[in-house]
Design goal:
607 residues; alpha+beta; TIM Barrel; Jelly Rolls; 3 domains; 10 helices
């Protein structure tokens, strides 16, 4: 009996010791010129990678690639609109499980830089803000306005519950936490920034906090006492001078966003930057002892309706594409590129004595699928939900709808020709008269009116409006409502009495297919294909018009023949041997009913 008690006591001690070892806190502090991890100089070689842009099942594989390139740290934003999609309803499950993302990074030997918003930019819908903030009367984002701060506090405390225990000073792997995001490009209110700092601390983020800004904005955006990191430049002397000027004459020196590439938007050429242009610059930064975060190391895909848009008075509305390949070192599917191999060679030169990089995992196998038939169909006008009736058109926000589409329907008196005007259309409209398409309007081209000749009698007018992505940067963050945001006029007179149908397309498993012929109208098509082996693949949508695709219930994002993106990446993790389902919502070309997939992406073809 005594032996048994001793054994149990020993096991309890062993368990307690191993738990303590797992949770043993590190220290991460600033010296005048370097970061100190457990008192020793530590150079962060970090790469940005966003958990929602990579299937959860692939997080670990992408992190192994990060290690193979020589990274010791991963940077990620946290996206408010994913975690609080509706006011007071939080979601940290599935692909939103950011704590699990951080824990996997730890298991793979990677530290984490956390950028928990409230604002992220990130080419992401509304810069990461949830749409419903716009329904709070008087609320002003990125300000000291009371309602905004209240919602922000609620959100950041939920994030703190998930992530504060994973900070380095609590035994986790989160080294530093960023407050706000390039705030100096937007405002200069230091009191607002200090409120951010207080809210973060109250949420449990009690380790190192920092700010980041481009050079011209750092004076506005840094908070005295916090490390001022810099974005977008890599001349070591300039980096050191600007940071020191804003941080009591000291370092450490951290480039929080180093851009070896760039993102794309619809209708504009694919952006690529030769790796050779950046290898020397990476070498000089590392040689100078600077820490760095590559934006992006791996972009992945902006799935669903989560892309943002740029817009200001000097250029038109520019919604971003679904591929976030970014010409990054790791491509959209998670394979090493030429850029990856060159950067790896540079980083290898800066390893400590006796340290070597793990081998680069092999390129993932790809498959091509021929002649995928979509034999089932449902005209969009045949699958409408119950409408909301109102005298004037309501915005998405007034309908409590976040993303997707709204169909606006009314009746006109016909027998005349006139101009149909949609004032402040946001963002893309398919106009239908008596069930036939009459044209489209596209905010990218400042289109808001179309000539219509109406037949005699009562005429049914349908306007399908797509939210192409809320603006994610600049002063127009505050003007981000979607749908028909003002009024509709025909022949100079305002049009009243609307039925509005919400079509958020959050899922596609509840559609009833009728297979009745749909001519020249938006249509949902469904099919299936059989696989004997699985692999990454790319749906070739270049012969289709515009729409969205789902495979086995997973949204792959938007396609649009204007380009430059013509394919949609299908991750191997979302395919299975045997039967696979595919659903396509096509807005413009209802005759299409077959497609192929290819072994390589097409990201550089304008049509």
């Amino acid at each position: 009996m005594a032996f048994k008690k001793t054994l149990i006591f020993s096991l309890i001690l062993l368990l307690a010791f191993s738990l303590k070892a797992q949770k043993a806190p590190h220290t991460f502090t600033l010296s005048d010129s370097a970061f100190l991890l457990d008192g020793k100089p530590f150079q962060m070689i970090s790469g940005e990678m966003h958990y929602p842009r990579v299937p959860r099942e692939a997080w670990r594989a992408r992190m192994k690639m990060a290690k193979a390139m020589g990274l010791n740290t991963i940077g990620t934003y946290v996206f408010w609109n994913l975690h609080e999609p509706q006011k007071g309803k939080f979601d940290f499950s599935g692909n939103n499980d950011v704590a699990e993302f951080v824990k996997i990074a730890k298991e793979e030997g990677l530290w984490v830089i956390l950028r928990p918003s409230p604002y992220v930019c990130a080419e992401w819908e509304f810069g990461g803000y949830p749409y419903w903030l716009q329904n709070e009367k008087g609320l002003i984002v990125r300000s000291k306005e009371e309602k905004y701060l209240k919602e922000y506090e609620t959100y950041i405390k939920e994030v703190g519950k998930q992530l504060a225990p994973l900070q380095v000073n609590h035994g986790g792997n989160i080294l530093m936490v960023q407050i706000e995001n390039e705030y100096g490009s937007y405002g200069s209110d230091k009191e607002y920034l200090s409120i951010n700092q207080r809210l973060f601390k109250e949420a449990g983020f009690d380790g190192l906090l920092y700010t980041c800004d481009p050079p011209e904005a750092i004076v506005n955006g840094h908070l005295p006492g916090l490390l001022a990191a810099i974005n977008g430049i890599d001349d070591p002397a300039k980096v050191k001078k600007i940071i020191a000027d804003n941080h009591d004459g000291k370092g450490p020196f951290y480039i929080a966003e180093w851009y070896p590439a760039w993102f794309d938007w619809w209708g504009t050429a694919h952006h690529t930057v030769p790796a050779e242009k950046y290898t020397g610059r990476l070498d000089s930064v590392l040689s100078a002892g600077l820490s760095i975060n590559m934006y992006m190391f791996h972009g992945g895909t902006t799935r669903g309706f989560m892309n943002g848009a740029n817009y200001d008075d000097s250029h038109p509305y520019e919604p971003q594409i679904s591929s976030y390949d970014y010409d990054a070192p790791l491509d959209e599917a998670g394979n090493a590129t030429h850029k990856f191999m060159l950067f790896r060679s540079v980083i290898a030169k800066h390893l400590s004595a006796g340290q070597t990089l793990p081998p680069v995992p092999a390129i993932k196998p790809t498959i091509a699928i021929n002649n995928i038939k979509l034999n089932q169909s449902a005209g969009l006008l045949d699958i409408l939900p119950k409408p909301v009736i109102n005298k004037t058109p309501l915005t998405f926000e007034e309908l409590n709808q976040d993303y997707g589409f709204v169909l606006y329907q009314t009746t006109l008196t016909g027998g005349k020709t006139g101009t149909l005007e949609l004032n402040e259309l946001r963002d893309y409209a398919v106009i239908m008269v008596n069930g036939k398409r009459a044209g489209v309007l596209d905010r990218r081209h400042n289109q808001n009116s179309i000539q219509l000749t109406l037949p005699k009698g009562k005429v049914k007018l349908d306007i399908l409006v797509e939210n192409l992505g809320r603006i994610n940067f600049g002063p127009y963050l505050l003007k981000n409502k979607k749908g028909i945001t003002e009024n509709v006029k025909f022949d100079g007179k305002e049009v009243y009495n609307w039925a509005m149908y919400s079509l958020p397309f959050k899922q596609v498993n509840n559609i009833t297919y009728t297979n009745k012929k749909v001519a020249n109208l938006p249509v949902v098509r469904k099919g299936s294909f059989q696989l004997s082996k699985v692999g990454d693949t790319y749906l070739d949508m270049s012969h289709w018009g515009k729409g969205v695709v789902w495979i086995n219930g997973h949204s792959l994002g938007r396609y649009w023949s204007v380009g430059p993106q013509q394919t949609l990446y299908v991750p191997v993790e979302w395919l299975k041997k045997g039967n696979n389902d595919i659903v396509v919502l096509e807005l413009l070309d209802s005759d299409k009913n077959a497609l192929n997939s290819t072994k390589a992406p097409i990201l550089n073809k304008l049509q």
